[in-house]
Design a protein that fits this description.
Radius of gyration: 20 Å
Strand order of the largest sheet: 12-11-10-6-5-16-17-18
Shape: globular
Largest sheet: 8 strands, antiparallel
Low-confidence stretches: none
Helix content: 25-40%
Mean pLDDT: 96
Order of helices and strands: HEHEHHHHEHEHEEEEEEEEHEHEEEEE
Structural class: alpha+beta
Number of strands: 18
Strand content: 25-35%
């Protein structure tokens, strides 16, 4: 049913070549994602000589590292056995403290048949993981992450002029990289945080060069704010996959959530996460949506790409320029915001009531 769209994804977005090794990943959280794997395999088999795939048990949380079987499939048994011998494997998978450079050297020395291209569409995100970081930064893999993907997105935010999205995303990313601070205001939201010294990334939807990674649907520029810099309040009306019964407000001080207000059940989910992982409270990401065909507000994969929105995430950001390593990362979208960015001697209104001013 979706083979024509998958063909476009593999050829237009990824420029997949016949001699490249393609890895396809999903989880068991949603039956339609398992079924979608069959369509991917049917199309990919006619485009490249080597396709490997894995459907693994749901990890039940965004930002967790994939299970051991995925590491073996991606890098070979020697890497996994060596990491175990050095007592690194368990710490990597559980995002506990480990010597990252030592682990990376193991990958360099022992990895075999590493994929050139990855399409990961499990329900729970693999974007902010060491797994993705090693593939893209060490081996130059092109990596597409599609958490919460719904097939209807093929005919919405995936059916877009990718050159336009790429150009706009790059322009906004350049401005965020230049900025030293940002101020976000909207209904129930008033937050400030520092961007000084951090580089923004453009999620363009085009992954043609080594090491490029991002979401599909794509369309954002994002950056890791300084972890101790967020002050103010963020009010959310939507969770990752539904409209909340009533708004929830996160109050930030010194970079982290110090208080939650609101009675929607999602509040209690967050409180449990915070009890388990103190680092989950920390600001992780600031992003600006740039996809003119993104519409759906109750699925964060699409909602954070809506042109004229911004999103603020908490949790892990170590894989894209930050310092916080924790098995949790979730974005919250702010609609119709007023956003001001600035630096020494200058400031600019980036968004005015949801209208992007480039």
């Amino acid at each position: 049913m979706y083979e024509e769209h998958i063909y476009r994804l593999l050829k237009v977005n990824l420029n997949l070549q016949e001699k490249e090794r393609l890895l396809l990943l999903t989880d068991t959280e949603k039956d339609y994602l398992v079924e979608l794997m069959e369509d991917f395999l049917n199309v990919a088999g006619g485009l490249t000589r080597e396709v490997i795939h894995c459907v693994y048990p749901s990890l039940c949380m965004h930002g967790r590292e994939p299970p051991e079987e995925v590491w073996r499939l991606s890098f070979g048994d020697q890497v996994v056995e060596k990491l175990k011998l050095l007592h690194l494997m368990d710490n990597i998978i559980h995002k506990e403290e480990y010597a990252e450079e030592e682990a990376i050297q193991v990958f360099r020395d022992f990895a075999e048949s590493v994929p050139n291209v990855v399409v990961a569409f499990p329900y729970y995100s693999t974007t902010h993981t060491f797994f993705r970081k090693v593939l893209t930064e060490v081996f130059g893999c092109r990596y597409v992450s599609m958490p919460l993907f719904e097939p209807e997105m093929f005919e919405g935010p995936m059916d877009v002029d990718w050159n336009y999205v790429a150009g706009l995303s790059t322009d906004v990313a350049d401005m965020l990289s230049e900025a030293e601070w940002a101020h976000v205001k909207a209904e129930g939201t008033d937050m400030e945080f520092s961007l000084a010294g951090r580089m923004s990334i453009a999620d363009t939807g085009l992954f043609h060069r080594k090491g490029q990674y991002g979401n599909l649907p794509a369309g954002e520029a994002f950056i890791a704010p300084l972890e101790d810099s967020a002050f103010g309040k963020l009010t959310m009306f939507y969770g990752p996959d539904r409209r909340l019964q009533s708004p929830i407000t996160l109050k930030f001080r010194g970079g982290s959530v110090e208080e939650i207000e609101g009675l929607d059940p999602y509040r209690y989910h967050l409180e449990e996460i915070f009890k388990r992982y103190e680092g989950a409270r920390t600001i992780a990401e600031f992003g600006v949506g740039t996809n003119p065909k993104a519409r759906k507000p109750d699925n964060v994969l699409e909602a954070e790409k809506i042109l004229g929105t911004v999103h603020i995430a908490i949790g892990d950001n170590h894989s894209f320029g930050g310092k916080n390593k924790v098995p949790f990362h979730t974005d919250y979208v702010v609609f119709e915001p007023q956003v001001t960015i600035g630096g020494k001697g200058w400031q600019k209104r980036l968004l005015e009531r949801g209208k992007l001013r480039t």
